[in-house]
C-alpha cells in the first residue's frame, strides 16, 4: 500500500503531465532559479546556461590551450579586486569616521569607479546595434572544383561566430526599424580566419567606397538635432539619394519588405561584392556569396514594425536568443553564384564589379556549398558581440578579392575602425577575435598586448632566431594573391561606362515583386517622403521613381499630393521570380504561438494541454496568455497576461476562450476583455493565422486563415499547415482593390 501523502501523489502526476506537454519557455536569465531571500553562503560562480558558449580558449597566438572555456569567466566564490585580492565590503567607501570625508587612500573605490567610467568603448559608426551567436559551418564538399579553401571540404566542421545588425541606429536604437541589416560571419578555420562581411540586401547605395562617408552622413540623424534616430525618413537621406541615383536600386530593396525582416532567422544574407575563388590547380572563378535561411525569407508588415519599436524594441535580438535557447537552432545554407573569370569581369552584360547590381538567380543559380547552424548564445554580450571585429581583408587560401572599388575601400576602412574602437593594433588578441590557426606575425608591443613574445628577432631575414618565421609556399597553404594582368592605363577618377545604368535593375526588382509586395514598396516610399520637410526633395525623388516604374511613381505622387512627373521612356526588362518572398512554404520550427485562455475555466483549460503537445511536436513554442500570470489548473502556467501580450510577438494566435474583462482592464461595457479583442484584431489585420475551439470560437469567424473546429489538435494541425506560408496573404488582397 502506498504510504505517500495523496497531495504528493497528485502533485507528482501533475508534474509529469506538465513535463510532457509544456516545453521549457526560453528567456530565463540564469541557469539556476533564484532564491527568494538573498543568498549569503559562499558558492562558486554559476556555470553558463546550457544554450551559452564562450570563445574557444586559444592563446593570443592561436594555439589551443586545452583549457575549458570557463577559465575566462569569473573564478572563486569571493569578491576580489582586479588583482585577486579578496574584499570584505563593496558597499561603503573608506571614510574618516561614519560621517567623515572619503579618504584618498581607498584603492578599491578608485579601481571600481575608474573601471565603471571606462566600461564603454566607442560604438561602431555603422552597425552599432547588433546581436550575435556561436555556431558551426559544415562543408558539403561540392565546391572543391572551384575553391581550395579547407572549410568547404566535405564534412569539414568549422566554428563560427555570426553578428547581425542594423546600419543606421545607435546601440540603444530599436531592432525593427526599416534599415539594411548586417550579416557578418567569422569562420575560425585551421588555415586562418575568414570573415564574410555582408548584408541582408545584395546591393549597396554606392559603387565606390570614397562615397561611403557621404551616404552615411546623409542617412544618420541630422547633425543639428541628432534626430531622427535609426531611420531614413528624413530630408538629408532623400536629398542625397535623389541626387545620387546610383543608390536607386538599394533604395528599392530597402523600401520593400526586405527592409523590415520578421527575424534574423528568416533573413537572407549576401556578400554584396564579387569575389575570386581559386582551386588546387590555380584555376579561378568569380562568385557571389549567398546565405539562404532554411525557414525561408519572411518580413514584418509595416504596422507590426511600428508597434514592435515600442512594445519590444529588442524583438530581433530576443527572437534569436530565445530560438537558440529553446533548441530551434537557426540555419542557413551558404550558396555560390559562379561566373567565368573573364578579363572584363562581366556576366550576361552585368558588370560584376558594380556593387549596385545583382545577377538574377535565373541566369546564375545559387549552388549550396555548406550549412551554417547557430547553436550557442554568447556568455557575455560585451566580450563577444560588442568586441568582435570583422574585416573584409581576413581571407584564406582559395578566396581572393576582385577590382570592385567599394570592396577595395572596405579593405582600408575596417582596420581603421578596429584601431579606434578597440584601443590599438592588438584587437585580434581579444578572445572572440583570436584565430584558431597558429600565429607568428612579427607584430610586437602596442596597446593591450596579451602575447608574451619570445625571441629577439621580429624581423626578416634573421639568424638570431634561427631564421624563424619562414615564408610558406602554395604547398604549405600560403595565401598567394591571384596574379592578374593590369592593362596599361592612365590614372583617373572615373568609373567604367557600365556603372552609369542606375535604373534597369531597380525596374527589374520592382517588376519581379508580387502586386501586394509592390503595394508595400509604394506605401514605404510614401511614408518616408511624407516625413521630409522640403517639397523640392519629394519632387526630385518622384523624378527618380518616374525612371523606375510608372505605377510606383504615380501612386507615391498621389499619396504625397504632388503632380505626377512626365512619364519616362521605360524599356521592358525581364523579371526574376526569386526576388519575391511570396508563394513558398517553409518549416515552422522556432515559431511562437500565443494561446488565449480563461484562467478560471478549468474545463476549457483541459483542451489546451493537447494543443501544447501538438505544437511542441512541431518544434513551435507555445505561450499561454491569461488574465493573470503564474500557475493555472491542469499543471499549466501563464507566460503572458492580457496586459503584457501583443499580437506582434506571435506568428499565430489560438483562442481557447473568449475571457471576460479582467480586474485590471480599463472600464468597459463589453463581454470580452478589450485587450484580447485588440490582440485578435491586430493578428487578423496583419494576416496571421488564427485558430479557435470551445469558447474561443466566439471571437472567430469563417475568414481566410481562420481555423475553427471542436478538437484542439485538429485546429493546431490546420494552423501549422497555414503557418508554413508565413502569413495568410489572401486576406490582404482585397486591400489592393
Automatic annotation (TrEMBL):
Its EC number is 1.11.1.6. Heme binds at residues 124, 163, 212, 410, 414, 421. Keywords: Heme, Hydrogen peroxide, Iron, Metal-binding, Oxidoreductase, Peroxidase. Residues 80-468 form the Catalase core domain. GO terms for biological process: hydrogen peroxide catabolic process; response to oxidative stress. Residues 9-22 have a biased composition (Basic and acidic residues). One of its GO terms (molecular function) is catalase activity. The active site is at 127, 199. Its cofactor is heme. There is a cross-link at residues 391-414 (3'-histidyl-3-tyrosine (His-Tyr)). Residues 1-71 are annotated as: Disordered. It holds the Pfam family Catalase_C. GO terms for cellular component: cytosol. It comes from the Bacteria. It catalyses: 2 H2O2 = O2 + 2 H2O. The keyword Transmembrane does not apply. SUPFAM superfamilies: Class I glutamine amidotransferase-like, Heme-dependent catalase-like. SMART domains: Catalase (SM01060). Decomposes hydrogen peroxide into water and oxygen; serves to protect cells from the toxic effects of hydrogen peroxide. Belongs to the catalase family. HPII subfamily. This is Catalase. It comes from Saccharothrix violaceirubra.
Amino acid at each position: 500500500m502506498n504510504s505517500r501523502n495523496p497531495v504528493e501523489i497528485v502533485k507528482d502526476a501533475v508534474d509529469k503531465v506538465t513535463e510532457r506537454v509544456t516545453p521549457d519557455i526560453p528567456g530565463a536569465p540564469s541557469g539556476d532559479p533564484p532564491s527568494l531571500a538573498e543568498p549569503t553562503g559562499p558558492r562558486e560562480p554559476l556555470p553558463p546556461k546550457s544554450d551559452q558558449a564562450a570563445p574557444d580558449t586559444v592563446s593570443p597566438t592561436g594555439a589551443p590551450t586545452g583549457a575549458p572555456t570557463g577559465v575566462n569567466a569569473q573564478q572563486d566564490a569571493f569578491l576580489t579586486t582586479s588583482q585577486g585580492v579578496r574584499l570584505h565590503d563593496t558597499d561603503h567607501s573608506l571614510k574618516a569616521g561614519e560621517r567623515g570625508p572619503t579618504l584618498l587612500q581607498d584603492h578599491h573605490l578608485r579601481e571600481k569607479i575608474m573601471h565603471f567610467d571606462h566600461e564603454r568603448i566607442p560604438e561602431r559608426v555603422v552597425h552599432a546595434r547588433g546581436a550575435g551567436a556561436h555556431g558551426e559551418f559544415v562543408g558539403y564538399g561540392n565546391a572543391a572544383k572551384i575553391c581550395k579553401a579547407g572549410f568547404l571540404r566535405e564534412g569539414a566542421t568549422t566554428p563560427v561566430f555570426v553578428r547581425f545588425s542594423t546600419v543606421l541606429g545607435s546601440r540603444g536604437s530599436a531592432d525593427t526599424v526599416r534599415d539594411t541589416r548586417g550579416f557578418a560571419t567569422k569562420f575560425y578555420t585551421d588555415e586562418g580566419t575568414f570573415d564574410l562581411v555582408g548584408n541582408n540586401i545584395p546591393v549597396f547605395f554606392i559603387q565606390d567606397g570614397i562615397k561611403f562617408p557621404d551616404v552615411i552622413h546623409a542617412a544618420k540623424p541630422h547633425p543639428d538635432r541628432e534626430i531622427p534616430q535609426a531611420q531614413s525618413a528624413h530630408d538629408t537621406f532623400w536629398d542625397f539619394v535623389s541626387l545620387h541615383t546610383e543608390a536607386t536600386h538599394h533604395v528599392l530593396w530597402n523600401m520593400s519588405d526586405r527592409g523590415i525582416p520578421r527575424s534574423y532567422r528568416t533573413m537572407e544574407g549576401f556578400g554584396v561584392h564579387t569575389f575570386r575563388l581559386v582551386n588546387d590547380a590555380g584555376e579561378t572563378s568569380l562568385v557571389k556569396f549567398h546565405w539562404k535561411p532554411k525557414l525561408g525569407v519572411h518580413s514584418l508588415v509595416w504596422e507590426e514594425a511600428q508597434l514592435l519599436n515600442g512594445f519590444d524594441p529588442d524583438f530581433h535580438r530576443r527572437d534569436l536568443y530565445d530560438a537558440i535557447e529553446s533548441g530551434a537552432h537557426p540555419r542557413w545554407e551558404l550558396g555560390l553564384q559562379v561566373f567565368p573569370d573573364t578579363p572584363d569581369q562581366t556576366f550576361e552584360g552585368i558588370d560584376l564589379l558594380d556593387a549596385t547590381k545583382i545577377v538574377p538567380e535565373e541566369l546564375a543559380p545559387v549552388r549550396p556549398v555548406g550549412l551554417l547552424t547557430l547553436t550557442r548564445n554568447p556568455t557575455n554580450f560585451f566580450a563577444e558581440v560588442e568586441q568582435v571585429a570583422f574585416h573584409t581583408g581576413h581571407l584564406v587560401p582559395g578566396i581572393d578579392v576582385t577590382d570592385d572599388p567599394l570592396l577595395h575601400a572596405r579593405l582600408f576602412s575596417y582596420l581603421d575602425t578596429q584601431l579606434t574602437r578597440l584601443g590599438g593594433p592588438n584587437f585580434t588578441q581579444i578572445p572572440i577575435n583570436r584565430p584558431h590557426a597558429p600565429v607568428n606575425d612579427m607584430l610586437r608591443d602596442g596597446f593591450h598586448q596579451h602575447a608574451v613574445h619570445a625571441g629577439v628577432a621580429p624581423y626578416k631575414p634573421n639568424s638570431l632566431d634561427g631564421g624563424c618565421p619562414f615564408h610558406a609556399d602554395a604547398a604549405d597553404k600560403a595565401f598567394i594573391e591571384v596574379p592578374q594582368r593590369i592593362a596599361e592605363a592612365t590614372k583617373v577618377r572615373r568609373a567604367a561606362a557600365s556603372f552609369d545604368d542606375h535604373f534597369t535593375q531597380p525596374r527589374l526588382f520592382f517588376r519581379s515583386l508580387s502586386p501586394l509586395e509592390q503595394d508595400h514598396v509604394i506605401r514605404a516610399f510614401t511614408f518616408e517622403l511624407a516625413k521630409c520637410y522640403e517639397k523640392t526633395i519629394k519632387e526630385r525623388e518622384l523624378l527618380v521613381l518616374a525612371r523606375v516604374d510608372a505605377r510606383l511613381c504615380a501612386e507615391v505622387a498621389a499619396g504625397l499630393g504632388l503632380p505626377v512627373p512626365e512619364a519616362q521612356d521605360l524599356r521592358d526588362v525581364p523579371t526574376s521570380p526569386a526576388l519575391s518572398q511570396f508563394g513558398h512554404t517553409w518549416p515552422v520550427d522556432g515559431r511562437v504561438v500565443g494561446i488565449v485562455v480563461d484562467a478560471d475555466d478549468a474545463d476549457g483549460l483541459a483542451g489546451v494541454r493537447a494543443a501544447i503537445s501538438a505544437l511542441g511536436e512541431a518544434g513551435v513554442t507555445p505561450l499561454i496568455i491569461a488574465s493573470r500570470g503564474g500557475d493555472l489548473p491542469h499543471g499549466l502556467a501563464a507566460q503572458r497576461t492580457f496586459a503584457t501580450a501583443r499580437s506582434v510577438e506571435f506568428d499565430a494566435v489560438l483562442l481557447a476562450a473568449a475571457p471576460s474583462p479582467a480586474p485590471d482592464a480599463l472600464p468597459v461595457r463589453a463581454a470580452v476583455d478589450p485587450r484580447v479583442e485588440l490582440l485578435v484584431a491586430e493578428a487578423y489585420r496583419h494576416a496571421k493565422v488564427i485558430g479557435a475551439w470551445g469558447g474561443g470560437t466566439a471571437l472567430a469567424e469563417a475568414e481566410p486563415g481562420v481555423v475553427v473546429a471542436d478538437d484542439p489538435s485538429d485546429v493546431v494541425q490546420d494552423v501549422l499547415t497555414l503557418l508554413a506560408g508565413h502569413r495568410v496573404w489572401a486576406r490582404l488582397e482585397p486591400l489592393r482593390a
